[in-house]
Task: structure prediction
Amino acid sequence: MIALARIGGARTAGPPVSAGRQVRAAEAAIAAALIDAVAAPAGDWAQVHDTDAATFLTAYVGASPPLNRIALRLGLWALDGATLFAPRYRRRYRHLVRGERIEVLVWVERGPFGAGLRPFVSIAKLAYYGDAGVMSALGYDAGAVVERAAAVREEAGTP
Result:
């Protein structure tokens, strides 16, 4: 993960940011629970704990600009705490079983905070489906794409 810094108005790559440097273990657990509910892998699909999805999401949060990082962390904590006050659950989101977590996401999505949930769902999908093993299971071969691109560049005489 590379942090982006502004230098003279242009965005340039900065030093790598360690995954989860600014993210607590509890936030990583909330992120993993969210990814598991959004992707809901079944059958032969890779389970979230067998992918780098949670690591990606926590690195994404940790590498985000300060205001974005605060908003993402607050959103994760809000999701985790919202279920404490729901009579049906009375447990943190990360401690619910997958079916209950999916119910909560549907409930939040239909309510006034649905628009605020969408970015979290999108990032969770990106985290899970961006895993190399999951992409491979879907038939995507990143190595073959790189090889084809290199062949096209070589044929065109461009670096």
Confidence is low (pLDDT under 50) at residues 1-20. Residues 66-82 form the longest helix (17 residues). Residues 107 and 157 are 54 Å apart (CA to CA). The first strand starts at residue 2 and ends at 7.
